C-alpha cells in the first residue's frame, strides 16, 4: 500500500540524499510510518556525513554506532517478519525473500561503517563508508526496498483479514435474510454477532491506524452505521418472522440489510484504497473551503500581480455566493440571518470590484512592489470574506442548536409509540407527518452545517448525519405502521423502540458534531492518540482466534454496550444543561463539564475508542479525588454516597477476567448515577443562582480533568517505546474487543 510519491518528510529526505525513487513512498498508516521513518533517518545520517581529510575518533565511533544500530534494528525487524511469514503461508515465500535481502543489506551497512581501526596501516586497503560511498547508497537502497516490501506484505495480511471477515459477514447475512423459523434465526444470528465483533475489532484497529483524517472519518461513519444497524437487523428480522405478511415489516427489514451492505462496501473501499465504482466520490465543495481558496488567491497578489486573471477571482466569488443561496433560500433560515448574509454578499462584490480596480492600476504601472492602496484592498476583501463566513456559521449553528433544543423531549417519537400500541391509525398518520417534517428540517440543517464545518472529516460527519436522518425517518415510520397494524405484538413494539433509540442517538451525535464545528471555528481542537494495526507474530497476531479466551461473552458485551449508550445520552443531557448557563466560567458549570467529559470517555471506552485504552485507565479516571469535589456535592445528599461508592469501586483491587468485568460494569453504572443526579442538579442550581444573584467565587477552582488526563497520557506515551519491532503495544493492555458492535 506504499507505492506512490511520498508524503512523509523522513522518507523524502532519504530520496534527496541519493536513495532514489525506490525510497519515495506514500505512507498511509501510522504503523508503517513509525517503523520505516526512523530507519530512513539513520541511513540518511550515514549518507550525509561530510568527507573530511581528518576524522576524529569521536566521529569514527559515532558512524560505527549508527551502522551497528541499523544492523541490530534490521535483525529484530527480520525476526518479526519471518515469524509473520511462518503464520501466513500464502505470503511466506515473498516475505522470506524480502527478509533475507533486508538482513544482507543491514550486514553490508555494518561492515562498511566498521571504521574504528581505519587509521591503522594494516587497514589501509579496506573498503569503508569513506572509500565506497556508492556502496553504502546501494546497500541503503536495497535495505529500504526490502524493509518496505516486508511492511507492504504485512499490511496486505491485515487487509486480507478484513476482507475475509467481511466475506463471512456477508455470507451469514444472506442466510439471515432467507431464514423462515425463529430457531434457525437465533442460531445464525449468534454466529453473525461473533463475526461482526471480529469485523469491528479489525476495522477499529485499521481506522485508528489510518493517517488520512478524511478516510478515518469515512471509516468511522461506516462503522457507526454497522453499530446501529446490527440491533435494527435483529428486531426487524424478528418482526418480519412474526408477521411475514406485513408489507411494512418486510420493507423495514430490507432497508436495514441494504444499509448494512452499503456500509460494509464503504469500509472495504477505504481499506483497499479503491474508489466507489462509477461514482465521483467528492461532493460539492463547501463554502468554508471555497472562501479559504479565494482568500489564498487574493493574498497571493502580494507576491505576484500576474499569476491569475481578474475573471478567475470573479468566478470564484460567484461560486461562493451561489453556495450562500443554500442558506438564503432555506425555509429554516431566520429573516435576520438571511438579511445579514445578503448584505455581506453584496459587500463582498463591492470589495472585489475595488480590489480589481486597484490591482489593474498596479499592473498598468508595472510596479514590482505592492502599493499601499492594493494592500488595503486585499485586507478589506479578506476581512469581508471572514465576516461572510462568520454570518454563515452563525446561521447554520443557531439553526442546529434551536432544532436540537426543540426536539430534545422526543415528543413525536413518544406519541408514535403510544398511538401505535393503541392501534390508532389516524393518530399514527398524523405523527408520521410530523416526523417527516422533523426529518426534513434536520437533513437541511446538516447540509448547512457541512458548508461551515471547517474540516474535511467534519464535512464527512455532516454528510453521514444527513444520510442517517434521511434513512432512519422512513424506517421509524414503517416500524410504527407495523405496530399499529399489530398493536399487541411485543416484537413490533421492541422494533419501534430500537429505531427510535437510533434516532435519539443520532440527535445526540449531532449535538456533539455541533460542538466540534464550533470548536474548529473558535480555534479549539484536541489531538487523538495513535493506534497501530500491523500484524504481530504468535499470540499477538491480528488472528483473532488467539484472543478468544479473553473475550467477553455475549451477555457481558450487551451489558457494557447498553450502559455505555445510556451514559452517552446522560452526557448529552448534562452538556445541554451546562450550555444554558449564561456564565460559562461558573464553578458549577466547570465541574459539571469536567464530570461530563469523564463520563463521555467511559462511553467511548465501551466502543473501543477514545483515550482510555485499558481497564486501568478507566478505573483511574473513576477515582474522584476529594480535593476535586465541588462544595456543591456537600449540599446534595443523593450525590455523596454515589460518588463515595464510585471511589471505593475504582480503588478496589481485583484479579481475573470476571472480576475485572464486574468492576468495569460497576464503575460505569456508578458514573451513570452521578450523571443522572447531575442532570437534575444543574438546572436547579441555575434557577437558584438567577434568583439569588449569587457570585462566582464560592467554589474552589478545580483541577481540570482534561489536563490531568493529558498529563497521564504523556506519561503513558513514554512507556510505549518499550514495544516490539513494529512499535505495537501488546493486545493484553487494551480492551480492544470492547468495540462498538459488542454492545449489541
Automatic annotation (TrEMBL):
Key words, A-Z: Cytoplasm
Family of the protein in this entry: Belongs to the vinculin/alpha-catenin family.
Cell location: Cytoplasm
The keyword Cytoplasm is annotated on this UniProt entry: yes
Keyword field contains Cytoplasm: yes
Name this polypeptide is given: Alpha-catulin
PANTHER family tied to this protein: ALPHA-CATULIN (PTHR46342:SF1)
GO CC, alphabetical: cytoplasm
GO molecular function, one term: actin filament binding
Pfam families: Vinculin (PF01044)
